Amino acid sequence: MEPRGSSGVGSGNSGTYTPEIAESLRFEEEIQSLIDPSFDASSAAGGSFTALLGLPANQAVELLHHPGPGEPPASAATDTLRLPFGCSSTFVERAARFSVFATDDSPASSSGGGLSPGLKAEPPDSDSPPTLPAPAGKPRRPSKRKECEKSKVSRRPRWGFLSRKAVAKKSKSAEENTSAAKPAAEENTSGDKLPYVHVRARRGQATDSHSLAERARREKINARMKLLQELVPGCSKITGTALVLDEIINHVQSLQRQVEFLSMKLAAVNPRIDFSGLDHILSAECGPLAVASGCGGGASDPAMWASDTAASTGGIRRMPAPPQIWHLDVVHPQQSSTVWENNGVAHPHFLLSPATSLVGYDPASSVPLNSNRLKTEL
Amino acid sequence: MQATKSFEQAFLKQMLLGIQLSAVSHGSGSLQERKSAIKLSADVAMAVARGSKKWTRGLIASLSKEEQNRSFLQFVLGKEFERPAKICHSSWKIPRSKNIVRRSLRFLSKRKSNIRAPNSSVLAGTLVEKRTQVLKRLVPGGQSMDAFSLLDETLDYAACLRAQVDVMQKLMTTLEASKHSDAQRPKEKFHLLPMVGSWYSTRKGLRKRLSKRPKLTL
Protein backbone atom coordinates (compact mmCIF):
# COMPACT_ATOMS: atom_id res chain seq x y z
CA MET A 1 0.00 0.00 0.00
CA GLU A 2 2.79 2.40 0.70
CA PRO A 3 4.36 2.62 -2.76
CA ARG A 4 0.95 2.76 -4.26
CA GLY A 5 -0.10 5.54 -2.02
CA SER A 6 2.95 7.63 -2.54
CA SER A 7 3.05 7.11 -6.26
CA GLY A 8 -0.60 7.88 -6.48
CA VAL A 9 -0.21 11.09 -4.63
CA GLY A 10 2.76 12.02 -6.71
CA SER A 11 0.97 11.42 -9.93
CA GLY A 12 -2.25 12.99 -8.90
CA ASN A 13 -1.26 16.59 -9.12
CA SER A 14 -4.09 18.17 -10.96
CA GLY A 15 -3.57 21.78 -10.29
CA THR A 16 -6.89 22.63 -8.81
CA TYR A 17 -6.64 20.25 -5.93
CA THR A 18 -3.29 21.12 -4.51
CA PRO A 19 -4.42 22.14 -1.05
CA GLU A 20 -6.24 18.91 -0.66
CA ILE A 21 -3.38 16.99 -2.11
CA ALA A 22 -1.07 18.57 0.39
CA GLU A 23 -3.32 17.54 3.20
CA SER A 24 -3.60 14.09 1.86
CA LEU A 25 0.16 13.93 1.64
CA ARG A 26 0.33 14.45 5.34
CA PHE A 27 -2.22 11.74 5.79
CA GLU A 28 -0.32 9.42 3.56
CA GLU A 29 2.77 9.78 5.65
CA GLU A 30 0.85 9.17 8.76
CA ILE A 31 -0.83 6.16 7.34
CA GLN A 32 2.43 4.74 6.18
CA SER A 33 3.86 5.08 9.60
CA LEU A 34 0.78 3.48 10.97
CA ILE A 35 0.62 0.58 8.65
CA ASP A 36 4.22 -0.26 8.91
CA PRO A 37 5.03 -2.05 12.09
CA SER A 38 2.26 -2.10 14.56
CA PHE A 39 -1.14 -0.72 14.98
CA ASP A 40 -2.01 1.26 17.97
CA ALA A 41 -5.67 1.79 18.34
CA SER A 42 -5.49 4.84 20.54
CA SER A 43 -3.07 6.78 18.49
CA ALA A 44 -3.94 5.43 15.11
CA ALA A 45 -7.03 7.43 14.65
CA GLY A 46 -5.63 9.38 11.75
CA GLY A 47 -6.58 7.02 8.99
CA SER A 48 -7.69 8.80 5.95
CA PHE A 49 -10.55 8.16 3.70
CA THR A 50 -8.23 7.63 0.81
CA ALA A 51 -6.04 5.09 2.50
CA LEU A 52 -9.01 3.08 3.47
CA LEU A 53 -10.32 3.09 0.01
CA GLY A 54 -7.08 1.54 -0.97
CA LEU A 55 -6.78 4.11 -3.67
CA PRO A 56 -4.13 6.68 -4.09
CA ALA A 57 -5.18 10.07 -2.95
CA ASN A 58 -5.67 11.55 -6.35
CA GLN A 59 -8.12 8.91 -7.39
CA ALA A 60 -10.17 9.40 -4.31
CA VAL A 61 -10.22 13.11 -4.79
CA GLU A 62 -11.16 12.62 -8.36
CA LEU A 63 -13.91 10.35 -7.27
CA LEU A 64 -15.20 13.09 -5.10
CA HIS A 65 -14.98 15.68 -7.76
CA HIS A 66 -15.80 13.74 -10.85
CA PRO A 67 -18.19 11.08 -9.91
CA GLY A 68 -19.24 10.41 -13.49
CA PRO A 69 -17.14 7.53 -14.75
CA GLY A 70 -16.52 4.42 -12.85
CA GLU A 71 -17.98 1.12 -11.93
CA PRO A 72 -21.29 0.86 -10.17
CA PRO A 73 -19.83 0.45 -6.74
CA ALA A 74 -17.76 3.50 -7.24
CA SER A 75 -20.66 5.35 -8.70
CA ALA A 76 -22.86 4.27 -5.85
CA ALA A 77 -20.39 5.69 -3.43
CA THR A 78 -19.91 8.87 -5.32
CA ASP A 79 -23.58 9.34 -5.93
CA THR A 80 -24.20 9.38 -2.29
CA LEU A 81 -21.26 11.62 -1.77
CA ARG A 82 -22.55 14.18 -4.16
CA LEU A 83 -24.14 16.83 -2.08
CA PRO A 84 -27.74 17.63 -2.65
CA PHE A 85 -27.41 20.90 -0.86
CA GLY A 86 -25.26 23.84 -1.50
CA CYS A 87 -22.36 22.98 0.74
CA SER A 88 -18.95 23.45 -0.58
CA SER A 89 -17.12 20.53 -1.98
CA THR A 90 -14.08 21.24 0.08
CA PHE A 91 -16.11 20.71 3.15
CA VAL A 92 -17.15 17.37 1.88
CA GLU A 93 -13.63 16.32 1.16
CA ARG A 94 -12.38 17.42 4.46
CA ALA A 95 -15.23 15.73 6.17
CA ALA A 96 -14.59 12.61 4.23
CA ARG A 97 -10.97 12.65 5.02
CA PHE A 98 -11.41 13.43 8.62
CA SER A 99 -13.78 10.68 9.35
CA VAL A 100 -11.69 8.49 11.43
CA PHE A 101 -10.84 4.91 10.97
CA ALA A 102 -8.38 3.30 13.15
CA THR A 103 -6.76 0.02 12.63
CA ASP A 104 -7.43 -2.94 14.72
CA ASP A 105 -5.05 -5.57 15.87
CA SER A 106 -2.85 -6.65 13.07
CA PRO A 107 -3.76 -10.35 12.81
CA ALA A 108 -7.33 -9.54 12.11
CA SER A 109 -6.43 -6.94 9.60
CA SER A 110 -3.83 -9.04 7.92
CA SER A 111 -6.29 -11.81 7.48
CA GLY A 112 -8.48 -9.52 5.53
CA GLY A 113 -5.99 -9.21 2.75
CA GLY A 114 -4.39 -6.23 1.21
CA LEU A 115 -7.28 -3.88 1.44
CA SER A 116 -8.34 -4.33 4.96
CA PRO A 117 -5.30 -3.20 6.89
CA GLY A 118 -6.37 0.06 8.16
CA LEU A 119 -10.00 -0.59 7.59
CA LYS A 120 -11.28 -0.69 11.09
CA ALA A 121 -13.29 2.07 12.57
CA GLU A 122 -13.21 3.81 15.84
CA PRO A 123 -15.52 6.31 17.40
CA PRO A 124 -14.43 9.40 15.70
CA ASP A 125 -15.53 11.97 18.16
CA SER A 126 -13.04 11.56 20.86
CA ASP A 127 -10.00 10.65 18.91
CA SER A 128 -10.11 12.54 15.72
CA PRO A 129 -9.49 16.06 16.93
CA PRO A 130 -6.46 15.41 19.06
CA THR A 131 -4.76 12.77 17.01
CA LEU A 132 -5.06 14.09 13.53
CA PRO A 133 -2.38 16.44 12.43
CA ALA A 134 -3.64 19.93 12.39
CA PRO A 135 -3.75 21.50 9.02
CA ALA A 136 -5.37 24.82 8.71
CA GLY A 137 -8.83 23.55 8.25
CA LYS A 138 -8.73 21.35 11.25
CA PRO A 139 -9.76 23.72 13.99
CA ARG A 140 -12.65 24.78 11.88
CA ARG A 141 -14.07 21.34 11.95
CA PRO A 142 -15.61 21.26 15.41
CA SER A 143 -17.00 24.72 14.93
CA LYS A 144 -18.34 23.75 11.59
CA ARG A 145 -20.02 20.91 13.23
CA LYS A 146 -22.03 23.25 15.33
CA GLU A 147 -22.67 25.68 12.55
CA CYS A 148 -23.80 23.46 9.81
CA GLU A 149 -27.13 21.85 9.71
CA LYS A 150 -27.67 19.32 12.37
CA SER A 151 -28.73 16.60 10.04
CA LYS A 152 -25.62 16.75 7.99
CA VAL A 153 -23.19 17.15 10.78
CA SER A 154 -24.49 14.51 13.04
CA ARG A 155 -24.14 12.05 10.27
CA ARG A 156 -20.48 12.44 9.84
CA PRO A 157 -19.47 10.49 12.86
CA ARG A 158 -21.84 7.79 11.80
CA TRP A 159 -19.61 6.93 8.95
CA GLY A 160 -17.33 5.46 11.50
CA PHE A 161 -19.95 3.15 12.84
CA LEU A 162 -21.10 2.19 9.45
CA SER A 163 -17.69 1.26 8.30
CA ARG A 164 -16.91 -0.51 11.51
CA LYS A 165 -19.90 -2.71 11.16
CA ALA A 166 -19.21 -3.47 7.57
CA VAL A 167 -15.64 -4.19 8.34
CA ALA A 168 -16.49 -6.18 11.39
CA LYS A 169 -18.75 -8.36 9.34
CA LYS A 170 -16.07 -8.78 6.76
CA SER A 171 -13.36 -9.56 9.25
CA LYS A 172 -15.55 -12.00 11.07
CA SER A 173 -16.54 -13.73 7.94
CA ALA A 174 -12.93 -13.70 6.83
CA GLU A 175 -11.83 -15.33 10.03
CA GLU A 176 -14.52 -17.90 10.07
CA ASN A 177 -14.05 -18.68 6.47
CA THR A 178 -10.35 -19.10 6.76
CA SER A 179 -10.89 -21.41 9.62
CA ALA A 180 -13.09 -23.46 7.38
CA ALA A 181 -10.55 -23.22 4.59
CA LYS A 182 -12.66 -21.38 2.17
CA PRO A 183 -10.68 -18.89 0.17
CA ALA A 184 -13.74 -17.59 -1.57
CA ALA A 185 -14.68 -15.21 1.20
CA GLU A 186 -11.25 -13.75 1.32
CA GLU A 187 -11.25 -13.39 -2.37
CA ASN A 188 -14.51 -11.62 -2.00
CA THR A 189 -13.27 -9.15 0.56
CA SER A 190 -10.08 -8.44 -1.20
CA GLY A 191 -11.69 -8.49 -4.56
CA ASP A 192 -14.19 -5.80 -3.72
CA LYS A 193 -13.36 -2.70 -5.53
CA LEU A 194 -14.39 -0.46 -2.69
CA PRO A 195 -14.38 -1.90 0.79
CA TYR A 196 -16.25 1.09 2.06
CA VAL A 197 -19.27 2.74 0.72
CA HIS A 198 -19.41 6.09 2.30
CA VAL A 199 -22.97 7.07 2.66
CA ARG A 200 -24.04 10.55 3.17
CA ALA A 201 -27.32 10.56 4.95
CA ARG A 202 -29.89 12.65 3.30
CA ARG A 203 -31.78 15.38 4.97
CA GLY A 204 -34.54 14.30 7.25
CA GLN A 205 -33.52 10.69 7.39
CA ALA A 206 -32.60 8.75 10.41
CA THR A 207 -29.07 8.87 11.61
CA ASP A 208 -29.27 5.58 13.34
CA SER A 209 -26.31 3.46 12.50
CA HIS A 210 -28.54 0.55 11.74
CA SER A 211 -30.56 2.42 9.23
CA LEU A 212 -27.43 3.86 7.73
CA ALA A 213 -26.00 0.46 7.25
CA GLU A 214 -29.24 -0.74 5.81
CA ARG A 215 -29.41 2.15 3.49
CA ALA A 216 -25.88 1.57 2.26
CA ARG A 217 -26.73 -2.03 1.72
CA ARG A 218 -29.88 -1.15 -0.11
CA GLU A 219 -28.08 1.23 -2.38
CA LYS A 220 -25.52 -1.37 -3.25
CA ILE A 221 -28.26 -3.78 -4.04
CA ASN A 222 -30.09 -1.22 -6.11
CA ALA A 223 -27.02 -0.56 -8.17
CA ARG A 224 -26.73 -4.24 -8.92
CA MET A 225 -30.39 -4.43 -9.71
CA LYS A 226 -29.98 -1.71 -12.30
CA LEU A 227 -27.29 -3.73 -13.98
CA LEU A 228 -29.49 -6.76 -13.98
CA GLN A 229 -32.32 -4.76 -15.43
CA GLU A 230 -30.16 -3.82 -18.32
CA LEU A 231 -29.14 -7.38 -18.90
CA VAL A 232 -32.56 -8.94 -18.80
CA PRO A 233 -34.58 -7.84 -21.78
CA GLY A 234 -37.63 -5.80 -21.11
CA CYS A 235 -36.82 -5.12 -17.54
CA SER A 236 -35.86 -1.52 -17.65
CA LYS A 237 -39.39 -0.29 -17.58
CA ILE A 238 -40.35 -2.24 -14.53
CA THR A 239 -40.08 -0.55 -11.23
CA GLY A 240 -39.96 -2.34 -7.97
CA THR A 241 -37.61 -4.91 -6.70
CA ALA A 242 -40.00 -7.81 -6.56
CA LEU A 243 -41.15 -7.50 -10.15
CA VAL A 244 -37.65 -7.12 -11.46
CA LEU A 245 -36.62 -10.16 -9.51
CA ASP A 246 -39.55 -11.96 -11.03
CA GLU A 247 -38.35 -11.12 -14.48
CA ILE A 248 -34.83 -12.15 -13.67
CA ILE A 249 -36.02 -15.46 -12.33
CA ASN A 250 -38.10 -16.07 -15.41
CA HIS A 251 -35.21 -15.20 -17.62
CA VAL A 252 -32.78 -17.50 -15.86
CA GLN A 253 -35.32 -20.30 -15.85
CA SER A 254 -36.01 -19.90 -19.52
CA LEU A 255 -32.32 -19.90 -20.30
CA GLN A 256 -31.80 -23.07 -18.33
CA ARG A 257 -34.71 -24.72 -20.09
CA GLN A 258 -33.29 -23.65 -23.40
CA VAL A 259 -29.99 -25.28 -22.54
CA GLU A 260 -31.76 -28.49 -21.73
CA PHE A 261 -33.75 -28.42 -24.89
CA LEU A 262 -30.75 -27.63 -27.04
CA SER A 263 -28.73 -30.40 -25.51
CA MET A 264 -31.57 -32.78 -26.26
CA LYS A 265 -31.63 -31.61 -29.82
CA LEU A 266 -27.90 -31.93 -30.12
CA ALA A 267 -28.14 -35.44 -28.81
CA ALA A 268 -30.77 -36.20 -31.39
CA VAL A 269 -28.72 -34.78 -34.19
CA ASN A 270 -25.62 -36.46 -33.01
CA PRO A 271 -25.65 -40.06 -34.20
CA ARG A 272 -25.98 -39.06 -37.80
CA ILE A 273 -23.10 -36.69 -37.66
CA ASP A 274 -20.71 -38.40 -35.36
CA PHE A 275 -18.95 -35.11 -35.18
CA SER A 276 -16.93 -35.79 -38.22
CA GLY A 277 -19.17 -33.54 -40.18
CA LEU A 278 -17.69 -30.67 -38.36
CA ASP A 279 -14.37 -31.41 -39.86
CA HIS A 280 -14.77 -29.89 -43.21
CA ILE A 281 -16.32 -26.86 -41.67
CA LEU A 282 -13.54 -26.52 -39.22
CA SER A 283 -10.86 -27.02 -41.76
CA ALA A 284 -12.03 -24.14 -43.82
CA GLU A 285 -12.83 -22.12 -40.82
CA CYS A 286 -9.32 -21.99 -39.44
CA GLY A 287 -10.09 -18.63 -38.24
CA PRO A 288 -8.03 -15.64 -37.46
CA LEU A 289 -9.25 -15.88 -33.95
CA ALA A 290 -6.63 -16.75 -31.45
CA VAL A 291 -6.81 -19.46 -28.93
CA ALA A 292 -8.46 -18.76 -25.68
CA SER A 293 -6.64 -21.09 -23.42
CA GLY A 294 -9.49 -21.61 -21.10
CA CYS A 295 -9.06 -25.19 -20.16
CA GLY A 296 -6.20 -25.61 -17.81
CA GLY A 297 -5.65 -29.27 -18.10
CA GLY A 298 -5.83 -29.33 -21.82
CA ALA A 299 -7.68 -32.58 -21.47
CA SER A 300 -7.22 -35.07 -24.18
CA ASP A 301 -7.50 -35.08 -27.85
CA PRO A 302 -10.60 -36.45 -29.39
CA ALA A 303 -8.38 -38.51 -31.63
CA MET A 304 -11.23 -39.20 -33.93
CA TRP A 305 -10.40 -35.99 -35.58
CA ALA A 306 -7.50 -37.36 -37.27
CA SER A 307 -6.33 -36.80 -40.68
CA ASP A 308 -9.48 -36.88 -42.71
CA THR A 309 -9.83 -33.16 -42.19
CA ALA A 310 -7.23 -32.53 -44.81
CA ALA A 311 -8.81 -35.05 -47.09
CA SER A 312 -12.39 -34.13 -46.49
CA THR A 313 -14.32 -32.20 -49.00
CA GLY A 314 -15.45 -28.69 -48.83
CA GLY A 315 -13.53 -27.45 -51.69
CA ILE A 316 -12.15 -24.50 -49.89
CA ARG A 317 -8.66 -24.83 -48.60
CA ARG A 318 -7.43 -21.89 -46.77
CA MET A 319 -4.71 -23.23 -44.66
CA PRO A 320 -1.55 -21.33 -45.08
CA ALA A 321 -1.16 -20.51 -41.45
CA PRO A 322 -2.51 -23.43 -39.45
CA PRO A 323 0.15 -26.02 -40.28
CA GLN A 324 2.68 -23.71 -38.82
CA ILE A 325 0.43 -23.11 -35.91
CA TRP A 326 0.22 -26.75 -35.15
CA HIS A 327 3.87 -27.12 -34.71
CA LEU A 328 3.89 -24.25 -32.39
CA ASP A 329 1.05 -25.67 -30.48
CA VAL A 330 3.04 -28.69 -29.71
CA VAL A 331 5.57 -26.57 -28.04
CA HIS A 332 3.47 -24.06 -26.29
CA PRO A 333 -0.10 -23.01 -26.75
CA GLN A 334 0.73 -19.45 -26.03
CA GLN A 335 2.98 -19.12 -28.96
CA SER A 336 0.17 -19.54 -31.36
CA SER A 337 -1.09 -16.18 -30.26
CA THR A 338 2.13 -14.61 -31.36
CA VAL A 339 1.84 -16.26 -34.72
CA TRP A 340 -1.57 -14.83 -35.12
CA GLU A 341 -0.26 -11.50 -34.10
CA ASN A 342 2.45 -11.68 -36.67
CA ASN A 343 -0.14 -12.34 -39.24
CA GLY A 344 -1.50 -8.99 -38.41
CA VAL A 345 -4.56 -10.10 -36.60
CA ALA A 346 -5.41 -8.63 -33.30
CA HIS A 347 -6.40 -11.38 -31.03
CA PRO A 348 -8.94 -11.04 -28.32
CA HIS A 349 -7.55 -10.99 -24.87
CA PHE A 350 -7.39 -14.26 -23.04
CA LEU A 351 -8.42 -13.09 -19.66
CA LEU A 352 -12.06 -13.00 -19.01
CA SER A 353 -13.03 -9.62 -17.85
CA PRO A 354 -15.33 -9.19 -14.93
CA ALA A 355 -19.01 -9.63 -15.06
CA THR A 356 -19.84 -6.08 -15.84
CA SER A 357 -18.28 -6.30 -19.21
CA LEU A 358 -20.61 -9.09 -20.11
CA VAL A 359 -23.57 -6.90 -19.52
CA GLY A 360 -23.36 -5.27 -22.87
CA TYR A 361 -23.50 -8.63 -24.55
CA ASP A 362 -24.98 -8.49 -27.94
CA PRO A 363 -24.99 -11.70 -29.92
CA ALA A 364 -25.88 -10.12 -33.21
CA SER A 365 -22.96 -7.80 -33.30
CA SER A 366 -20.34 -10.41 -32.63
CA VAL A 367 -21.19 -12.23 -35.81
CA PRO A 368 -20.52 -9.59 -38.46
CA LEU A 369 -17.31 -8.62 -36.73
CA ASN A 370 -15.93 -12.09 -37.13
CA SER A 371 -16.94 -12.35 -40.73
CA ASN A 372 -15.21 -9.07 -41.43
CA ARG A 373 -12.11 -10.28 -39.79
CA LEU A 374 -12.18 -13.44 -41.77
CA LYS A 375 -12.44 -11.48 -44.97
CA THR A 376 -9.47 -9.37 -44.17
CA GLU A 377 -7.46 -12.38 -43.22
CA LEU A 378 -8.19 -14.27 -46.35
CA MET B 1 -17.80 -7.64 -26.47
CA GLN B 2 -14.33 -9.03 -26.54
CA ALA B 3 -14.96 -10.77 -23.30
CA THR B 4 -18.03 -12.53 -24.59
CA LYS B 5 -16.25 -13.60 -27.74
CA SER B 6 -13.35 -15.07 -25.89
CA PHE B 7 -15.73 -16.67 -23.47
CA GLU B 8 -17.66 -18.19 -26.33
CA GLN B 9 -14.50 -19.49 -27.90
CA ALA B 10 -13.30 -21.05 -24.72
CA PHE B 11 -16.71 -22.45 -24.03
CA LEU B 12 -17.10 -24.00 -27.43
CA LYS B 13 -13.68 -25.49 -27.39
CA GLN B 14 -14.18 -26.96 -23.99
CA MET B 15 -17.58 -28.30 -24.84
CA LEU B 16 -16.44 -30.02 -27.96
CA LEU B 17 -13.60 -31.58 -26.07
CA GLY B 18 -15.96 -32.71 -23.41
CA ILE B 19 -18.38 -34.21 -25.83
CA GLN B 20 -15.64 -36.11 -27.49
CA LEU B 21 -14.43 -37.29 -24.14
CA SER B 22 -17.75 -38.63 -23.15
CA ALA B 23 -17.73 -40.72 -26.27
CA VAL B 24 -21.26 -39.90 -27.20
CA SER B 25 -20.21 -39.16 -30.68
CA HIS B 26 -20.34 -42.80 -31.57
CA GLY B 27 -24.05 -42.80 -31.30
CA SER B 28 -24.12 -45.24 -28.47
CA GLY B 29 -26.56 -45.09 -25.64
CA SER B 30 -30.05 -43.83 -25.41
CA LEU B 31 -31.15 -40.34 -26.12
CA GLN B 32 -31.35 -39.55 -22.46
CA GLU B 33 -27.80 -40.58 -21.81
CA ARG B 34 -26.52 -38.62 -24.71
CA LYS B 35 -28.51 -35.60 -23.73
CA SER B 36 -27.29 -35.64 -20.17
CA ALA B 37 -23.73 -36.16 -21.30
CA ILE B 38 -23.98 -33.23 -23.63
CA LYS B 39 -25.54 -31.09 -20.99
CA LEU B 40 -22.88 -32.10 -18.53
CA SER B 41 -20.09 -31.23 -20.86
CA ALA B 42 -21.80 -27.95 -21.71
CA ASP B 43 -22.11 -27.02 -18.06
CA VAL B 44 -18.57 -27.96 -17.29
CA ALA B 45 -17.40 -26.03 -20.31
CA MET B 46 -19.26 -22.98 -19.16
CA ALA B 47 -17.83 -23.22 -15.68
CA VAL B 48 -14.31 -23.72 -16.96
CA ALA B 49 -14.53 -20.96 -19.49
CA ARG B 50 -15.76 -18.48 -16.97
CA GLY B 51 -12.98 -19.07 -14.54
CA SER B 52 -13.35 -18.78 -10.85
CA LYS B 53 -16.59 -17.40 -9.62
CA LYS B 54 -18.87 -18.49 -6.85
CA TRP B 55 -21.45 -19.95 -9.12
CA THR B 56 -18.88 -21.87 -11.13
CA ARG B 57 -17.63 -23.53 -8.02
CA GLY B 58 -21.15 -24.27 -6.93
CA LEU B 59 -21.93 -25.68 -10.33
CA ILE B 60 -18.94 -27.97 -10.34
CA ALA B 61 -19.68 -29.05 -6.82
CA SER B 62 -23.28 -29.90 -7.62
CA LEU B 63 -22.22 -31.74 -10.73
CA SER B 64 -19.63 -33.73 -8.90
CA LYS B 65 -22.13 -34.93 -6.39
CA GLU B 66 -23.27 -37.60 -8.80
CA GLU B 67 -20.85 -40.40 -8.95
CA GLN B 68 -21.09 -40.96 -12.65
CA ASN B 69 -19.85 -37.52 -13.41
CA ARG B 70 -16.84 -37.63 -11.21
CA SER B 71 -14.49 -39.39 -13.56
CA PHE B 72 -15.42 -37.11 -16.39
CA LEU B 73 -14.97 -34.06 -14.27
CA GLN B 74 -11.71 -35.28 -12.96
CA PHE B 75 -10.35 -35.83 -16.39
CA VAL B 76 -11.49 -32.55 -17.78
CA LEU B 77 -10.48 -30.38 -14.93
CA GLY B 78 -7.31 -32.06 -13.93
CA LYS B 79 -5.98 -31.07 -10.63
CA GLU B 80 -8.31 -28.13 -10.42
CA PHE B 81 -11.12 -30.47 -9.71
CA GLU B 82 -10.14 -31.61 -6.28
CA ARG B 83 -9.64 -28.22 -4.83
CA PRO B 84 -13.07 -26.75 -5.53
CA ALA B 85 -14.77 -29.99 -4.72
CA LYS B 86 -13.33 -30.02 -1.29
CA ILE B 87 -14.10 -26.47 -0.54
CA CYS B 88 -17.59 -26.22 -1.87
CA HIS B 89 -20.20 -27.88 0.19
CA SER B 90 -23.83 -27.59 -0.58
CA SER B 91 -24.67 -27.06 3.03
CA TRP B 92 -22.37 -24.12 3.42
CA LYS B 93 -24.00 -21.56 5.56
CA ILE B 94 -23.11 -17.96 5.83
CA PRO B 95 -21.41 -17.48 9.13
CA ARG B 96 -23.49 -15.14 11.19
CA SER B 97 -22.54 -13.43 14.33
CA LYS B 98 -24.73 -13.80 17.34
CA ASN B 99 -25.55 -10.14 17.51
CA ILE B 100 -26.87 -10.09 14.01
CA VAL B 101 -28.95 -13.14 14.59
CA ARG B 102 -30.34 -11.73 17.79
CA ARG B 103 -31.14 -8.46 16.14
CA SER B 104 -32.84 -10.08 13.22
CA LEU B 105 -34.89 -12.21 15.57
CA ARG B 106 -35.99 -9.12 17.35
CA PHE B 107 -37.03 -7.56 14.07
CA LEU B 108 -38.85 -10.67 13.10
CA SER B 109 -40.78 -10.73 16.30
CA LYS B 110 -41.66 -7.10 15.80
CA ARG B 111 -42.87 -7.93 12.35
CA LYS B 112 -44.99 -10.73 13.62
CA SER B 113 -46.65 -8.40 16.05
CA ASN B 114 -47.38 -6.09 13.15
CA ILE B 115 -49.08 -8.74 11.11
CA ARG B 116 -52.53 -7.50 11.90
CA ALA B 117 -51.71 -4.24 10.18
CA PRO B 118 -49.49 -5.23 7.29
CA ASN B 119 -47.91 -2.21 5.76
CA SER B 120 -46.62 -2.15 2.26
CA SER B 121 -43.00 -2.33 3.18
CA VAL B 122 -43.43 -5.57 5.03
CA LEU B 123 -45.35 -7.03 2.15
CA ALA B 124 -42.71 -5.89 -0.28
CA GLY B 125 -40.10 -7.36 1.96
CA THR B 126 -41.68 -10.76 2.04
CA LEU B 127 -42.23 -10.74 -1.68
CA VAL B 128 -38.62 -9.97 -2.25
CA GLU B 129 -37.69 -12.62 0.25
CA LYS B 130 -39.63 -15.23 -1.59
CA ARG B 131 -38.06 -14.33 -4.85
CA THR B 132 -34.64 -14.31 -3.31
CA GLN B 133 -35.23 -17.83 -2.15
CA VAL B 134 -36.24 -18.92 -5.60
CA LEU B 135 -33.23 -17.23 -7.11
CA LYS B 136 -30.99 -18.93 -4.62
CA ARG B 137 -32.27 -22.22 -5.80
CA LEU B 138 -31.76 -21.33 -9.43
CA VAL B 139 -28.25 -20.03 -9.33
CA PRO B 140 -25.80 -22.82 -8.56
CA GLY B 141 -24.18 -22.34 -5.23
CA GLY B 142 -26.64 -19.67 -4.32
CA GLN B 143 -27.58 -21.03 -0.95
CA SER B 144 -24.48 -19.73 0.65
CA MET B 145 -24.56 -16.23 -0.72
CA ASP B 146 -25.88 -13.08 0.75
CA ALA B 147 -28.24 -10.93 -1.22
CA PHE B 148 -25.66 -8.66 -2.69
CA SER B 149 -23.33 -11.29 -4.00
CA LEU B 150 -26.34 -13.28 -5.08
CA LEU B 151 -27.30 -10.49 -7.43
CA ASP B 152 -23.76 -10.25 -8.62
CA GLU B 153 -23.56 -13.92 -9.33
CA THR B 154 -26.95 -13.90 -10.99
CA LEU B 155 -25.77 -11.22 -13.34
CA ASP B 156 -22.73 -13.19 -14.28
CA TYR B 157 -24.57 -16.45 -14.49
CA ALA B 158 -27.30 -15.04 -16.71
CA ALA B 159 -24.77 -13.60 -19.11
CA CYS B 160 -22.88 -16.87 -19.30
CA LEU B 161 -26.08 -18.82 -19.76
CA ARG B 162 -27.07 -16.64 -22.64
CA ALA B 163 -23.68 -17.08 -24.26
CA GLN B 164 -23.98 -20.80 -23.76
CA VAL B 165 -27.38 -20.88 -25.40
CA ASP B 166 -26.09 -18.86 -28.30
CA VAL B 167 -23.13 -21.08 -28.91
CA MET B 168 -25.22 -24.18 -28.69
CA GLN B 169 -27.71 -22.78 -31.13
CA LYS B 170 -25.02 -21.93 -33.58
CA LEU B 171 -23.53 -25.36 -33.19
CA MET B 172 -26.91 -26.87 -33.76
CA THR B 173 -27.60 -24.95 -36.93
CA THR B 174 -24.19 -25.78 -38.27
CA LEU B 175 -24.62 -29.44 -37.61
CA GLU B 176 -28.00 -29.52 -39.17
CA ALA B 177 -26.89 -27.59 -42.18
CA SER B 178 -23.95 -29.83 -42.75
CA LYS B 179 -26.12 -32.85 -42.24
CA HIS B 180 -28.59 -31.83 -44.85
CA SER B 181 -26.13 -31.06 -47.51
CA ASP B 182 -22.66 -32.41 -47.34
CA ALA B 183 -21.78 -31.12 -50.69
CA GLN B 184 -22.66 -27.65 -49.78
CA ARG B 185 -19.71 -25.42 -49.63
CA PRO B 186 -18.97 -24.64 -46.03
CA LYS B 187 -18.03 -21.12 -46.83
CA GLU B 188 -21.51 -20.00 -46.00
CA LYS B 189 -21.27 -21.44 -42.57
CA PHE B 190 -18.36 -19.34 -41.55
CA HIS B 191 -20.52 -16.77 -40.06
CA LEU B 192 -22.16 -19.36 -37.90
CA LEU B 193 -19.17 -20.71 -36.13
CA PRO B 194 -16.38 -18.21 -36.13
CA MET B 195 -14.95 -19.40 -32.92
CA VAL B 196 -14.70 -23.02 -33.84
CA GLY B 197 -11.61 -22.35 -35.84
CA SER B 198 -9.74 -21.37 -32.77
CA TRP B 199 -10.46 -24.71 -31.24
CA TYR B 200 -9.48 -26.41 -34.40
CA SER B 201 -6.10 -24.82 -34.46
CA THR B 202 -5.16 -26.49 -31.23
CA ARG B 203 -6.20 -29.90 -32.35
CA LYS B 204 -2.84 -31.01 -33.57
CA GLY B 205 -1.11 -30.05 -30.40
CA LEU B 206 -3.65 -31.85 -28.33
CA ARG B 207 -3.34 -34.97 -30.37
CA LYS B 208 0.31 -35.18 -29.56
CA ARG B 209 -0.48 -34.67 -25.95
CA LEU B 210 -3.06 -37.37 -26.03
CA SER B 211 -0.56 -40.01 -26.87
CA LYS B 212 0.89 -39.64 -23.44
CA ARG B 213 -2.36 -39.68 -21.54
CA PRO B 214 -4.66 -42.62 -21.26
CA LYS B 215 -7.87 -42.21 -23.09
CA LEU B 216 -10.94 -42.01 -20.99
CA THR B 217 -13.71 -44.42 -21.69
CA LEU B 218 -17.04 -43.97 -20.09
TrEMBL record, chain A:
SMART domains: HLH. Residues 1-22, 103-194 are annotated as: Disordered. Keywords: Nucleus, Transcription, Transcription regulation. GO terms for molecular function: DNA-binding transcription factor activity; protein dimerization activity. The keyword Transcription applies. GO terms for cellular component: nucleus. Residues 205-255 form the BHLH domain. It is found in: Nucleus. PANTHER family: STEROL REGULATORY ELEMENT-BINDING PROTEIN, TRANSCRIPTION FACTOR BHLH48-RELATED. Belongs to the bHLH protein family. This is (wild Malaysian banana) hypothetical protein. It comes from Musa acuminata subsp. malaccensis (Wild banana). The lineage of its organism: Eukaryota, Viridiplantae, Streptophyta, Embryophyta, Tracheophyta.
From TrEMBL, chain B:
It is found in: Nucleus. Its main location: nucleus. Residues 5-66 form the IBH1-like N-terminal domain. GO terms for biological process: regulation of DNA-templated transcription. InterPro entries: bHLH_AtIBH1-like, IBH1-like, IBH1_N. GO terms for cellular component: nucleus. This is IBH1-like N-terminal domain-containing protein. It comes from Musa acuminata subsp. malaccensis.
